[in-house]
Design brief:
The complex is a heterodimer of chains A (263) and B (311). With 263 residues, chain A is an alpha/beta fold. Chain A has a single domain, classed as P-loop containing nucleotide triphosphate hydrolases (Rossmann fold, 3-Layer(aba) Sandwich). Chain A is built from 10 helices and 10 strands. In chain A, the strands form 2 sheets. Chain A has a 6-stranded mixed beta sheet with strand order 6-7-8-3-9-10, sandwiched between helices. Chain B is mainly α. Chain B has a domain of 206 residues. Chain B has 13 helices and 2 strands, in the order H-H-H-H-E-H-H-H-H-H-E-H-H-H-H. Chain B has a two-stranded antiparallel sheet. The longest helix of chain B has 33 residues. Classes of the chains: A alpha/beta (263), B mainly alpha (311). Chains A and B meet through helix 2, strand 6 and helix 3 of A and helix 7 and helix 8 of B.
Chain lengths: 263, 311
C-alpha cells in the first residue's frame, strides 16, 4: 500500500549544521498495517512522516502510494489520499470555523470544492452521528467555534476529521504527546477503534513505548536516520519496554538512558 | 448627507473586498490602491466609447480581479512577501492606468452611466440611497453565501490555519489567488461606480484607498461586532457608511479637505492602538464581565421560573 524506497534526506547540506535526517530508509506497509515508530529525538521519525506527506522533499529515493509514484506530488496533492494528525492539538483544526464547518472541510478531502453549501441539513445529521463516536458531547455543539474547545477535544476532533473521508494512509505524529494522560488515553483508544473499523494503513510516531507496544501490528525503531529494528506482529506481542531498551542497546552497542527514549 | 450616504454605500463594496483579504485571508493587500483606479479607468473609457455602463462596470470587475491575479501569482508562485507583492502590482498599475485612460483623467459628463440611470429612476434623495443600500446588501449577501460554500470554507480555513487545510488536500496557493482576485474585482467594480458617481475617472483616485477600506473594516467591526461571518460583513458595510459620514461631518466642521488622508491614517492608527492600551482593555473586560453576569442572571432566572411555578 505504502512504500518508501531508499529515501535519503540531508538538512542544510554543505554547512556546519549539516544533518543527515534520513539515510537510505526502506519501509513497506501492507494494506491495513498499523505500524508504530519509536526512536530518540532526531532519529528521523517525523522526517519519515513529513516525507510521505510531501511536506519535505526527499533528496533521493521514491515514495509509492497504492502503486503510484507520488514522489513528485505536492503536499496538498498527496493529501487527497493521506490523512494526518499533528502533535500540536491546535494544528489539525480551523479555530475560527465551527465544528460542523471543520467537518465539512474534512468531508471534501480529495473531492472538488465548488459552490455548493458546505453544511446542509443532511450533512449536519451525518456529522452529528459521526461525532457521537468521540463520546465528548460535541454532537450537541455543532455550531461552536473549534477555537473554544479544549486541547483534548480538538485533538479528538482532528482524529475524526483526518479519518472522516477514509484516506488510504493515516499518519499520526506523536498525536497524544501534548495531552494529559486521561485525554491521551482517550485519543489512543479512539485511534485504535477507528483504524480497526476502517482497516486504515497507519504509521504512528510515538515517544511512549508502552503505547507503541500496545497498539498496532508492527513496530519500528529508528536511530540517526536509519531503521534499526523492525518487529513483526508475532514477536511484538511478547515484547516489553525493557526488551526494547536492551534491544536498542544491543544494536547500537551502547547502553541507553531510558529517559532519552521515554522523554 | 445624501451624497455621503450614497458614497458610503458604494465604498462598502471596497470594504467588503478589503475584508476578504485583510480579515478572511489575513493578507494585507495593497493592490487595491491600483485596482480601484484600474476599474474606474476601464469603465470610464468604455463608457465614453458608448459601451453599456453596466457592461463597463462588469469589465471593471474583470480588470480588478486580473490585478489581484498578478499579486497572487507574485506572492504564491514567486515567493514574494505579500505586502511587497501588493506594492509592486500597485506601482505597476499606475502606468497601466495612465495607458488605459490615455491621460490623467477621463470626464464622464453627459454620458449614460449607472448613476445617471439611478438619477432617472430615483433622483437624489432617500430613494436613491435605498436603492444603493439594496445593492450593497446584495453584495454582502453574495459574499456571505460564497464564504459558506465548500470553496468559501476552504478560503476561510486558508486564512485561519494553512497547515490544516493543506492536509485536507486544498491548494492554499490557489485559494489565496482566488481570494485576491475576488477582492480586487470588487474594488475595481467599486472604483467604476465611484468614477460614474463623481463624473470622472482620475489617476489619483485610488491613493490611500487601502486606508479607507481598513478604516471601514476596523471601525465597523469595533462598533458592530464580528462573531459570525454574516454579522462581520454587515459590520463592514455599516463601517464604510459610518466612516464616510464621519468624514462628511469633519468637512462640514471646517476641516481642510487636504488633511483628509492624514485623518484617515490617524483614525486607523488609533483604532489599532486603542485595543492595546491597558485602560481600554480594562473597560472592555469590565463590559465583558458585566455581560457574563447578565447572562448568568438570565440563566438563573429562567432556571428559577419552573421552580416558582411549582411553588
Amino acid at each position: 500500500m505504502l512504500s518508501v524506497s531508499h529515501v535519503s534526506k540531508t538538512f542544510f547540506p554543505g554547512t556546519v549544521n549539516e544533518r543527515r535526517a534520513l539515510v537510505d530508509v526502506d519501509l513497506h506497509l501492507q494494506e491495513g498495517d498499523f505500524v508504530t515508530v519509536i526512536g530518540s529525538n532526531g532519529a528521523g521519525k517525523s522526517t519519515v512522516l513529513n516525507t510521505i506527506a510531501g511536506r519535505i522533499q526527499q533528496d533521493s529515493g521514491t515514495v509509492t502510494l497504492d502503486g503510484a509514484d507520488v514522489s513528485k506530488l505536492k503536499e496538498h496533492q498527496r493529501a487527497a489520499q493521506v490523512g494526518r494528525v499533528f502533535q500540536d492539538p491546535m494544528a489539525g483544526t480551523s479555530p475560527n470555523l465551527t465544528i460542523e464547518e471543520n467537518l465539512a472541510l474534512a468531508d471534501k478531502r480529495g473531492a472538488a470544492r465548488g459552490l455548493a453549501l458546505g453544511v446542509t441539513r443532511a450533512k449536519r445529521t451525518r456529522f452529528a452521528e459521526a461525532l457521537k463516536v468521540l463520546e465528548l458531547g460535541l454532537e450537541d455543539r455543532l455550531k461552536t467555534k473549534v477555537g473554544l474547545l479544549s486541547g483534548g477535544q480538538r485533538q479528538a476532533l482532528s482524529l475524526l476529521m483526518a479519518t472522516f473521508s477514509r484516506p488510504k494512509v493515516l499518519l499520526l505524529d506523536e498525536h497524544t504527546a501534548a495531552l494529559d494522560p486521561q485525554r491521551a488515553e482517550l485519543v489512543t483508544r479512539l485511534t485504535t477503534k477507528v483504524v480497526q473499523e476502517q482497516q486504515l494503513t497507519t504509521l504512528m510516531v510515538t515517544h511512549n513505548m508502552a503505547q507503541a507496544l500496545q497498539v498496532g501490528n508492527r513496530l519500528i525503531m529508528m536511530h540517526e536516520g536509519r531503521i534499526i529494528l523492525d518487529v513483526p506482529e508475532q514477536e511484538k506481542a511478547q515484547l516489553t519496554p525493557e526488551d526494547l531498551l536492551s534491544e536498542f542497546a544491543k544494536i547500537k552497542g551502547a547502553a541507553l538512558d531510558d529517559k532519552t527514549m521515554l522523554q | 448627507m445624501i451624497t455621503a450616504l450614497e458614497l458610503g454605500l458604494v465604498y462598502a463594496i471596497v470594504a467588503l473586498g478589503v475584508y476578504l483579504t485583510f480579515r478572511i485571508l489575513n493578507f494585507p493587500d495593497l493592490t487595491v490602491d491600483g485596482s480601484f483606479t484600474s476599474g474606474a479607468a476601464t469603465a470610464a473609457i468604455l463608457i465614453t466609447q458608448q459601451v453599456n455602463p453596466f457592461l463597463a462596470t462588469a469589465a471593471a470587475f474583470a480588470v480588478g480581479s486580473l490585478a489581484g491575479l498578478i499579486t497572487g501569482l507574485l506572492h504564491t508562485k514567486g515567493n514574494i512577501n505579500g505586502l511587497l507583492a501588493g506594492i509592486l502590482t500597485m506601482i505597476g498599475l499606475y502606468s497601466i492606468n495612465l495607458r488605459i485612460m490615455g491621460g490623467a483623467n477621463v470626464p464622464l459628463l453627459n454620458q449614460d452611466t449607472v448613476i445617471s440611470g439611478l438619477r432617472e429612476v430615483a433622483g437624489v434623495g432617500w430613494t436613491s440611497v435605498l436603492i444603493l443600500a439594496v445593492v450593497a446588501l446584495c453584495f454582502k449577501l453574495a459574499i456571505d453565501w460564497f464564504l459558506h460554500t465548500d470553496a468559501g470554507l476552504a478560503l476561510q480555513a486558508t486564512g485561519d490555519n494553512e497547515q490544516m487545510i493543506r492536509s485536507f488536500a486544498v491548494s492554499t496557493d490557489r485559494m489565496k489567488i482566488v481570494g485576491l482576485m475576488l477582492s480586487n474585482g470588487l474594488v475595481g467594480l467599486a472604483g467604476a461606480v465611484v468614477a460614474q458617481h463623481q463624473g470622472f475617472a482620475d489617476i489619483g483616485m485610488g491613493i490611500g484607498l487601502i486606508l479607507v477600506g481598513l478604516a471601514s473594516v476596523i471601525l465597523g467591526q469595533a462598533i458592530f461586532g464580528t462573531r459570525v461571518v454574516v454579522q462581520a460583513t454587515l459590520a463592514v458595510v455599516l463601517g464604510a457608511v459610518v466612516y464616510r459620514l464621519a468624514i462628511q461631518f469633519a468637512l462640514n466642521a471646517g476641516l481642510n479637505p487636504n488633511d483628509m488622508k492624514l485623518m484617515s491614517a490617524v483614525l486607523v492608527i488609533v483604532a489599532l492602538l486603542l485595543p492595546q492600551w491597558k485602560g481600554f482593555r480594562r473597560i472592555a473586560q469590565r463590559r465583558r464581565g458585566r455581560s457574563a453576569l447578565q447572562a448568568a442572571a438570565k440563566a438563573t432566572l429562567t432556571e428559577d421560573a419552573p421552580g416558582k411555578k411549582v411553588g
